[in-house]
Amino acid sequence: MRWRCVSAFWCVCTLGGFLCLAPGALAHGIVGKRLFIEPLVTQDASPKNELDLPVWEVIEAPDGHTAAFNYSVEKKLMPRFSVSFDNSVVSFTPNGRGSVVGFGNIGFGAKYALYRNAAHEFILSSAFDVEVPTGNPRVGANSSTTLTPGLLYAKGFGDLSAHRILKWLSPLALQGDFTLDFPIKGDSKSAPSKVPHVDMVLEYSLPYLNAFVRHADAGYSLEEGAIRKGHSLRAIAGNLFPFAEFNFSWVPGDAGIGLRPQGFIRPGLVYVGHYVEIGAAAELPANSFTGRSVGAIGIVDLFIGDVFPKLGWMIHK
């Protein structure tokens, strides 16, 4: 959400620079032969060691212009369990008034992988997040403590690889979550209602296509922790994941009566390297209630367990 030309230029330069410098990709978030990306907004079902710094966003909403710089860290404590912390710095410019800059609320989370099926490239996890009202209400931070239970999933289409024609769809994968915000504290005038969220990502893995459909990429090695080795443009292109992310919430309508859907469709591209994932997408409002202007969002996701191997420790393996 920032000044549009500047944000677009920053996105292109950052993405291009990191793509040129990043080494080959690590087997991160793998279930069977499937590597799932870290989505921009949707929660990843895989417990992991990661630092998202930053997730930046630029949106022109009906009530004003917002620029957000979000950051989060997740630490895996057991093979199936991780905890997380997140916060944001937000600049909000209401229509016809000056901008306000402040911190968003602090969030804490926990995630547990309930079920994994490597053969069918499927994982199902539960999540529980707590948002503490430490942020500035003038930039949109809620004034209530909010509990958010959720169910997260990811499924690869590798089951289609046995079919002569449908095998070309096997690089596809779905990731998604279902969450519900429960406000539990705050004054009655400003406390939000229960808000359901539904998020989904449809992605296409070029590494999967080259290795398991075309059988044209001898550099792909799950065992050695790499998607594709090398630093050439061909190696970089072989680690790309085009995707479309769909993010929807149901928030109180006019006068707080009923719930109205708002959300974004986010088409974009992600590169997964050995130490980092870099991605960017356009933000297309799904309806007039969300807004009418196109925004932008980007992510730099650092795999801290690989950058700093000592941080990969766990309480129990």
Please tell me the total number of domains.
Answer: 1
What overall geometry do the principal axes of the alpha carbons give? globular
Structural category is mainly beta
CATH class: Mainly Beta
Structure report:
The chain is mainly beta and 317 residues long. The protein has one domain: Beta Barrel (Porin). Helix content is 11%, strand content 48%. The protein is built from four helices and 15 strands. The model is unreliable at 1-27 (pLDDT under 50).
Concise summary:
The protein has helices at residues 4-21, 206-213, 233-237, 304-307; strands spanning 30-31, 34-35, 50-61, 64-78, 81-94, 100-103, 106-117, 122-132, 145-156, 172-185, 195-204, 240-252, 259-272, 276-285, 295-302. 11% of the residues lie in helices and 48% in strands.
Notable features of this structure?
twelve-stranded antiparallel β-barrel, disordered N terminus, 4 helices, mainly beta, 15 strands, two-stranded antiparallel sheet, 317 residues, Porin
Summarize the helices and strands and which ones pair or pack.
Blueprint (H helix, E strand, L loop, with lengths): L3 H18 L8 E2 L2 E2 L14 E12 L2 E15 L2 E14 L5 E4 L2 E12 L4 E11 L12 E12 L15 E14 L9 E10 L1 H8 L19 H5 L2 E13 L6 E14 L3 E10 L9 E8 L1 H4 L10
Antiparallel strand pairs: 1-2, 3-4, 3-15, 4-5, 5-6, 5-7, 7-8, 8-9, 9-10, 10-11, 11-12, 12-13, 13-14, 14-15
